[in-house]
Structures are given as C-alpha cells and as structure tokens.
Design a protein that fits this description.
three-stranded antiparallel β-sheet, binds flavin-adenine dinucleotide, 8 strands, globular, mainly alpha
C-alpha cells in the first residue's frame, strides 16, 4: 500500500513532492559539476574565531575533523582578499561592525571579516562522518533550536518533538508515503514554524550526509549506512519533509536571483571555455529553479507586527551563523558556515530584496562572492541529500526483497 514516492503539497510552499522528485537527479548532476568549477569550489572562511557564547566547546581531535586549506597564491587574483576588500566590502555606512565580523542591515548572517581567514577547496573537504559527537555537538544543536523563540515563552523544540518509536513496520519515509506534518502545531505562528523547518531540515540534511558517507569503525571503509539513516531521519517523517522544504526555499531564491546570477562575473577561472561552461551549468540550474522553486514568500511577515517579527527572525538567524564558531570540529564548522550562510543568503533574497534591488544593472554589487558560492553549494548539499535518500530507498527495497 505504500507509494513509491512521497506525494502531495510540501506544506508552506506551492510545490509538491512529485515535482521536486522529478528534477532531483538532473538538478543534482548539474549542481555537482557546478560546485567543482574553480569559482564555486574556493570558499574563504575564518575558522578560528572564538565562540561568542561559551568557552569550553570541546574540540574534536579525530583526523576526519581536520581540513586542508589552499595557499592564497592558487586563487585567481581577482577573488583574493585584497581585491575583494576593495570591490566587495559594502561602504562603511552600510555595514554594522562587531569584533571580527560585520553585517549589513539586510543580512541574515554575520559574514567573516574579509581580511581574516583561509581559502578552502570545498571539493577536497567533503561533508561526511567525522566522529564529532557528544555534549559539544548537542549543545550547538540545542542552542540553534533555542533561537526559535519569537516574543513567546521559551520552548525547547529539541525535547518538544515527539519522536516516533523504533519502526516495527517499514518507515514511510523510505517506502515513500510521507504523512501530514505531525510536528506542526497550528496555533504557532507561521514564521516560527518556518524557522523550525529550516533548522530541522538543515540538521536532517547534515545527518543524511553523515549516514550516506559513514565510516565503518572496524574496517575503516566508507559507505552508506542504512541503519543510521533509519534511526536518524527515516523514523521521523517530518525531518525528511523539511529537507524538501529547504530545497524549495533555496530553489525559489535561486530563481529570483536568476538574472543577477546570469550577469555575474565568473571570469578568473582560467580559459574562456571554462568560464562559458560554468555559466552554461548555472543556466541549467536557474532554469530548473524557475520551474520548480514555488515558494510564496509573501505569506510571511504580514500583519500588525510584521516588521518586528522580521527583525527578530533576522537577528535569530544571525545568531545561528555566530553559533557556528562554537562547533568543535573544523570540517563540521566549515560546512556549518557554508550552509548557514547559504540559507541566510536565500532568506535575504526572499525577504529583503525587491525586483529593483535584484536587478543586476541597478545593483551590480548586491552580493559578495562568498554569498553566491555559499548559496549554490548549499543548494547542492540539499539536492545531494535527496539523491542520497533515493539511494537509501533502493537499499531498503533490496533488503525487503532478500527477506
Ligand atoms: P544529533 O544529530 O546531535 O541531534 C541531537 C538531538 O536533536 C537528537 O537526539 C534529536 O532529539 C534531535 N534531532 C536530530 N535531528 C533532528 C532534526 N532533523 N530535527 C529536529 N530534531 C532533531 N558530524 C559529522 O560526522 N560530520 C559533519 O560534517 C558534521 N557537521 C556538523 C555541523 C554542525 C553545525 C553541528 C552542530 C554538528 C555537526 N556534526 C557533524 C555532528 C552531528 O550533527 C551530530 O551532532 C552527531 O553525529 C551526533 O548525533 P546524534 O545522533 O547524537 O544526534
């Protein structure tokens, strides 16, 4: 009786699961090539800023937690810090400075100081199992969920979620039929629910990567771990739903940003052919995003206290990006920063920028390179998670066939 794929509308969006499923593999193929191009694979990040919220954030000493950086001389000159700080830094009056970082009023994230940090080749440091577990990781996740408090009494949503019991029957999220959103409380305001979905979807996507590229502790071999996926994601259908939700949200942002992305200068990668190929891949991604990214951002932040709520939402999301400095594992922190910056960039595009602001002729310096790189890599991460879910579904079906 279980359907092959999840069906029906993805709540709070104008899109359904079938539509996302129908483009997942194409989108994944295009994005996977795109993020391997020089423009999209080099990311500048400051991994050594102090955690602003607590001091004892236990460091992961496993080899897998480490990252390799790239010498600045390998980076095309026009993308380097000195050039970037001239071209990309917004004027002083448009940014708010804090020690080691700054933001513009429209930003949903704190961007690393452009004069600090290292370049990282993201393709050389894949997000996967690192062994970063225990109280430090849990504390970071709890703090992120606790930001979900908009002028109301504080509720710890981590403990508030009612987990499903261990699955005696095949989990629906593996066989396909996703149930109605059981974690939803209709009395909650829409913005609060959206915040929770964004975070829970990000958490579920990271967990999916960990389970899909897991290391067998005894043999040292890497591979997908179905049990891990069942325990951490498939047993909680709403977590999988939120991966779809985040994907649609990001696609909508990419769709709106289409003209700006098409006009962006990707040169510096080497040959003219390389630059043309980068743009061609990007165009395919934008086309898919425009067809599928049906998220109606206008339903949020309406009514009497809309502006106050939006400022709170922004402030909370900025805090999430700062909490990334408390992640005690370099590789996890790197991907945490990439993805929270990517989601923050999407939120800025959806909730802060009108068509005039998004017009590349009127606003050529709208986004920094790091925001564009983070946005596309984050969409790639989520699409890769959906691709991994398809793998897990196949593995589950094969397990069933053997029994
Ligand atoms: P956790 O994933 O730590 O979750 C803690 C609790 O949150 C769970 O017990 C559950 O109650 C609840 N929960 C779990 N998932 C969800 C969800 N989707 N929605 C709502 N509630 C949920 N580890 C790696 O190996 N590689 C990485 O690249 C990596 N990156 C990370 C990035 C960040 C920003 C952080 C904070 C951690 C990262 N980790 C990474 C650690 C990883 O996320 C887990 O914390 C770790 O694997 C321990 O998992 P756990 O099973 O104890 O539960």
């Amino acid at each position: 009786s279980c359907k092959q794929f999840p069906t029906g509308p993805i709540e709070t969006t104008l899109c359904d699961y079938e539509t996302v499923e129908s483009v997942t593999e194409d989108l994944y193929t295009e994005l996977h090539s795109l993020v391997e191009t020089p423009f999209f694979k080099y990311f500048r990040v400051d991994l050594y800023r102090e955690c602003p919220f607590w001091s004892d954030n236990g460091f992961c000493m496993n080899r897998e937690c480490g990252i390799t950086t790239v010498d600045e001389s390998e980076i095309p000159e026009r993308w380097r810090a000195a050039a970037l700080s001239k071209v990309e830094m917004p004027p002083e009056d448009q940014r708010t400075l804090l020690p080691g970082c700054y933001y513009r009023d429209s930003d949903y994230c704190f961007l690393d100081d452009m004069t600090e940090g290292d370049y990282v080749d993201l393709t050389m440091n894949p997000e996967r199992f690192t062994g970063y577990v225990g109280p430090s990781a849990h504390r970071v996740w709890s703090s992120i969920y606790e930001e979900n408090c908009f002028g109301m009494s504080e509720v710890n949503l981590l403990s508030g979620e009612a987990p499903n019991p261990a699955p005696a029957t095949p989990p629906d999220s593996l066989t396909g039929a996703l149930k109605a959103d059981s974690a939803e409380n209709t009395r909650e305001c829409l913005e609060r629910r959206v915040y929770y979905k964004i975070i829970s979807g990000l958490h579920a996507s990271i967990s999916t990567h960990i389970c899909h590229e897991d290391m067998d502790q005894t043999t040292g071999e890497w591979g997908p771990n179905l049990k891990c996926f069942i325990e951490r994601i498939a047993s909680y259908p709403e977590r999988l739903q939120y991966i779809y939700f985040d994907t649609v949200l990001l696609l909508r942002a990419v769709a709106r940003l289409g003209p700006y992305l098409s006009a962006y200068d990707y040169c510096g990668t080497g040959t003219h052919e390389d630059d043309t190929a980068t743009l061609a891949r990007l165009t395919k991604v934008i086309d898919i995003a425009q067809a599928v990214g049906k998220f109606d951002e206008t339903v949020l932040f309406r009514g009497e206290n809309a502006n106050i709520l939006k400022e709170e939402f922004k402030e909370h999301f900025r805090n999430v990006t700062r909490i990334m400095d408390c992640v005690g594992c370099d590789k996890c922190r790197l991907w945490g920063k990439v993805q929270t910056t990517g989601v923050a960039t999407a939120l800025k595009i959806l909730f802060e920028l009108d068509e005039n602001a998004l017009d590349p002729r009127q606003n050529a310096n709208l986004l920094q390179r790091s925001e564009v790189v983070a946005l596309m890599n984050t969409l790639h991460r989520f699409t890769e998670s959906l691709h991994a879910v398809n793998d897990f579904r196949r593995m589950w079906a094969e397990t069933g066939a053997q029994e």
